[in-house]
C-alpha cells in the first residue's frame, strides 16, 4: 500500500466527518434554515436561535464527534493489542463498568459536590474492567476467554447499575437504565463537553504513541520485544488510555455498543490491515458512525429520544453474525 | 315453575337491593387519588386503609389526615387480610390485583382519571354513592363550585402563554388535569399550540422557539435522575432568566380533587403578576 492511498483514505474520512458534523448542527426539531442556523451559531440573529445553536446543538455535535472517535480508537487499539477481532469496549464490559462508575458517582451525590467526580468514577470503572479482562483472558487474549470474561463483567456491572438505580428515592431514576445501556446524546450541554473532553484528550494522548508497538506486535510478542517494545509499559498505556477514553465517553453519553467492533473491521482493508494506520482511521470512522447515528435518531423519531445504541446495534449485530460466520470459515 | 323462578329472582333482586342499601363498613383505597376523595367523604371509621402514598406530604394534599390510617401497598395478599367489604381503586391500579380481589369476592370500584372539571365532579359523586355518603358529596361539589367561581375572572386582554415543563421534558396539554388548571387560571398552553393536547415529550428546542410568557416547571424529587437534570439545562435556565417561573407542587396538581383550586389560585396570581408587570 502506498502512502498516498492511505492519505487519501484519511482525507476522505476527515471530509465525511466534517460533513456529518455540519449536518448534526443543522438537524433538530426546531425548523430553522441552514443559513439562519449557522449565523446563529456565530451569535447573529434571534436570541433564542443563538441559544439553541450554542447550548443544544453545538455540544451535541461535539460530543458525537468525541464519543465516536473514542469508541473507534479504543476498538482499533484493543483489537491490535489482543490480536483478536472480537475485542471491543462494549463487548468486553468496559462501557458497562464505566456506566456503573458514573451511576455510582451521580447517585451517591459525589458528582453534585465535585463535577469531575463523574468522569473520574467512570474512568475508574472502565480501568477496573480492562485490568480484569486482561487478567482473566491472559495477555494473548484467546477469543473464548476474552468473550466469557467480557460477558461476566458486563452482566455484573449492568446488574449493579440497575440495582443502584432501582434503589434510588427518585421515581424517574429507574428509567435511566435505558440510557446507561444504550446511550444517547439528547439534551447534553457544554458542561458535559467540558467534563468529558479533558479526560478524552488524555486518552488520545496515551493511545497515540502505542501505534508503533501495535505494528510490531503483529510479528508476535518476542519479535516486538526485540525491536524495543516494552510489554509492561505498553499494557499500562493501553489500560490508562482506553479507560480515559471510554470513561469520558460513557460518563456523558452512556454506553454505545458495536461502534468499536464494526468500524475497525470496515476500515481494516482500506489501511491494508496495518494496526498503526487503523488507529487514526478508526477514530475518524467512529466519529462518522456516531454522528450519523445521532442524526438518524433525530430524523427517524423526532422528540422521542430514541437511543443511539438501538441504531448501532441494529447495524452492528448483523455484522457481528457475519463475523462469526467468517471466523468459522477460516477455522479460527 | 315460572312463578317459582320469579320468586327466586325476586328474592335475589331483593337481597341485592338490600346489600346496596347498606353502605360498606370497611372500605380500603389503593390509589392516591381515591384515597383523598374517600378521606373527604367517608364516615368516621368507614375507611380502614389508604395507599402508602397518601401519607407522603410530597405527593398527597391530605397527608395529615391519612397518617393515622394503616397504609397498604396495593398488594393482593395485604389487602385481602385487611378484610375490606369494598375496595376503591384508580385507573392506574394493577389490573391483576383488581381481578384477583374480585375472584376473592371483594367488590372493587375503579375510578377513572379525572382530566377536567366534569370528571372531578363525576368522581366525587360516584365516591359519595359507593360510600353511601351522597349528601356529603353534594355538599363538597357545591363548595368546590363556589370556590371555583371566586377564582374565575375573565383575563383582561390577551391570555398570556404558559408552558408546563416537567421531568424528561414532559409537557401537558388541555386534555390533562395540569392543562385544565392553567387554562382555568387564564393561560393559553404552549403544548396545545405545538400539537400535544394530551401531553407528551416537548423537545427543549421547540420550547425555546415557542418562547412562553410563563414557565411552569415540574417539581424536583429527592435523589438524582437524568430526566431531572434536563430542568437544570443552561438553555432552559437562560429562557427562565427574564421570565417568571412557577414550580408545580405535586399534591395540588396530581389528583382531581377540590385541592386543585389551590393550584388554580397560585397560577392566577402568577397571571395577575404578569399582566400588571411591564
The CATH topology name of chain A reads ABC transporter involved in vitamin B12 uptake, BtuC
**Oligomer description:** heterodimer
CATH architecture heading of chain A: Orthogonal Bundle
Characterize the biggest β-sheet of chain A: none
Order of helices and strands of chain A: HHHHHHHHHHHHHHH
Structural class of chain B: alpha/beta
> What value does the Rg of chain B take, in angstroms?
22 Å
- Overall, the morphology of chain B is globular
Q: For the terminal residues of chain A, how far apart are their CA atoms?
A: 26 Å
- The CATH class label of the largest domain in chain B is Alpha Beta
Number of domains of chain B: 2
Tally of DSSP β-strands of chain A: 0
Low-confidence parts of chain A, pLDDT < 50 over ≥5 residues?
A: none
* Count of helix runs of chain B: 14
Gyration radius from CA atoms of chain A, angstroms: 20 Å
Overall pLDDT score of chain B: 87
InterPro entries (chain B): ABC_Transporter_SBP, ABC_transptr_periplasmic_BD
Organism (chain B): Paracoccus kondratievae
Domain Fe/B12 periplasmic-binding (chain B): 26-278
Pfam families (chain B): Peripla_BP_2
Question: How would you describe what is shown here?
Answer:
The complex is a heterodimer of chains A (332) and B (278). Chain A has a single domain, classed as ABC transporter involved in vitamin B12 uptake, BtuC (Orthogonal Bundle), CATH 1.10.3470.10. Helix content of chain A is 76%, strand content 0%. Chain A is globular, with a radius of gyration of 20 Å. Chain A has 15 helices and no strands. Chain B has 278 residues and is α/β, with parallel strands linked by helices. Chain B has two domains: 23-148, 3-Layer(aba) Sandwich (Rossmann fold), CATH 3.40.50.1980; 161-276, 3-Layer(aba) Sandwich (Rossmann fold), CATH 3.40.50. Chain B has 14 helices and eleven strands. Chain B has a five-stranded parallel β-sheet with strand order 3-2-1-4-5, with helices on both faces. In chain B, strand 2, helix 3 (63-66) and strand 3 (71-72) form a beta-alpha-beta unit. The termini of chain B are far apart. The relative contact order of chain B is 0.12. The interface between A and B is medium-sized, with 31 and 27 residues.
Amino acid at each position: 500500500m502506498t502512502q498516498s492511498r492511505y492519505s487519501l483514505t484519511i482525507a476522505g474520512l476527515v471530509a465525511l466527518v466534517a460533513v456529518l458534523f455540519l449536518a448534526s448542527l443543522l438537524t433538530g426539531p426546531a425548523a430553522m434554515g441552514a443559513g439562519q442556523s449557522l449565523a446563529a451559531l456565530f451569535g447573529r440573529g434571534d436570541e433564542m436561535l443563538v441559544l439553541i445553536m450554542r447550548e443544544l446543538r453545538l455540544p451535541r455535535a461535539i460530543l458525537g464527534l468525541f464519543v465516536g472517535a473514542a469508541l473507534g480508537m479504543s476498538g482499533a487499539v484493543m483489537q491490535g493489542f489482543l490480536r483478536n477481532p472480537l475485542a471491543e469496549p462494549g463487548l468486553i464490559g468496559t462501557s458497562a463498568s464505566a456506566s456503573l462508575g458514573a451511576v455510582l458517582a451521580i447517585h451517591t451525590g459525589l458528582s453534585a459536590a465535585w463535577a469531575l467526580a463523574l468522569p473520574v468514577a467512570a474512568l475508574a470503572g472502565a480501568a477496573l474492567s480492562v485490568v480484569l479482562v486482561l487478567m482473566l483472558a491472559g495477555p494473548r487474549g484467546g477469543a473464548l476467554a476474552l468473550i466469557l470474561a467480557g460477558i461476566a463483567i458486563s452482566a455484573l456491572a449492568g446488574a449493579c447499575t440497575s440495582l443502584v438505580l432501582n434503589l434510588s428515592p427518585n421515581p424517574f431514576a429507574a428509567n435511566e437504565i435505558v440510557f446507561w445501556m444504550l446511550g444517547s446524546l439528547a439534551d447534553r450541554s457544554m458542561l458535559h463537553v467540558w467534563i468529558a473532553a479533558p479526560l478524552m484528550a488524555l486518552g488520545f494522548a496515551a493511545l497515540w504513541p502505542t501505534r508503533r508497538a501495535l505494528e510490531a506486535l503483529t510479528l508476535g510478542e518476542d519479535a516486538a520485544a526485540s525491536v524495543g517494545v516494552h510489554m509492561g509499559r505498553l499494557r499500562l498505556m493501553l489500560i490508562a488510555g482506553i479507560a480515559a477514553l471510554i470513561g469520558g465517553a460513557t460518563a456523558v453519553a452512556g454506553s454505545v455498543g458495536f461502534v468499536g467492533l464494526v468500524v475497525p473491521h470496515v476500515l481494516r482493508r482500506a489501511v491494508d490491515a496495518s494496526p498503526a494506520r487503523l488507529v487514526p482511521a478508526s477514530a475518524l470512522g467512529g466519529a462518522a458512525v456516531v454522528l450519523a447515528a445521532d442524526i438518524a435518531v433525530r430524523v427517524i423519531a423526532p422528540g422521542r429520544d430514541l437511543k443511539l445504541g438501538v441504531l448501532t446495534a441494529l447495524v452492528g449485530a448483523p455484522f457481528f453474525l457475519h463475523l462469526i460466520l467468517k471466523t468459522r470459515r477460516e477455522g479460527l | 315453575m315460572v312463578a317459582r323462578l320469579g320468586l327466586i329472582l325476586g328474592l335475589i333482586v331483593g337481597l341485592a337491593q338490600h346489600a346496596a342499601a347498606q353502605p360498606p363498613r370497611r372500605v380500603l383505597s389503593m390509589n392516591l387519588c381515591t384515597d383523598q376523595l374517600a378521606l373527604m367523604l367517608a364516615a368516621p371509621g368507614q375507611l380502614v386503609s389508604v395507599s402508602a402514598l397518601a401519607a407522603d406530604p410530597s405527593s398527597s394534599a391530605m397527608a395529615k389526615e391519612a397518617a393515622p390510617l394503616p397504609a397498604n401497598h396495593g398488594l393482593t395478599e395485604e389487602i385481602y387480610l385487611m378484610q375490606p367489604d369494598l375496595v376503591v381503586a384508580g385507573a392506574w391500579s394493577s389490573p391483576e390485583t383488581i381481578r384477583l380481589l374480585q375472584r376473592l369476592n371483594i367488590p372493587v370500584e375503579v375510578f377513572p382519571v379525572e382530566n377536567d372539571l366534569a370528571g372531578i365532579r363525576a368522581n366525587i359523586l360516584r365516591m359519595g354513592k359507593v360510600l353511601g355518603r351522597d349528601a356529603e358529596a353534594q355538599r363538597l361539589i357545591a363548595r368546590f363550585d363556589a370556590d371555583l367561581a371566586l377564582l374565575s375572572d375573565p383575563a383582561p386582554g390577551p391570555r398570556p402563554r404558559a408552558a408546563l415543563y416537567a421531568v424528561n421534558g414532559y409537557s401537558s396539554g388541555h386534555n390533562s388535569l395540569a392543562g385544565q388548571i392553567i387554562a382555568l387560571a387564564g393561560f393559553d398552553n404552549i403544548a396545545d399550540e405545538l400539537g400535544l393536547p394530551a401531553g407528551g415529550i416537548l423537545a427543549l428546542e421547540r420550547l425555546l422557539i415557542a418562547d412562553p410568557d410563563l414557565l411552569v416547571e415540574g417539581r424536583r424529587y429527592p435523589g438524582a435522575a437524568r430526566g431531572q437534570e434536563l430542568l437544570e439545562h443552561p438553555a432552559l435556565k437562560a429562557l427562565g432568566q427574564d421570565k417568571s417561573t412557577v414550580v408545580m407542587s405535586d399534591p395540588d396538581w396530581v389528583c382531581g380533587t377540590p385541592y386543585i383550586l389551590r393550584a388554580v389560585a397560585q397560577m392566577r396570581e402568577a397571571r395577575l403578576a404578569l399582566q400588571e408587570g411591564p
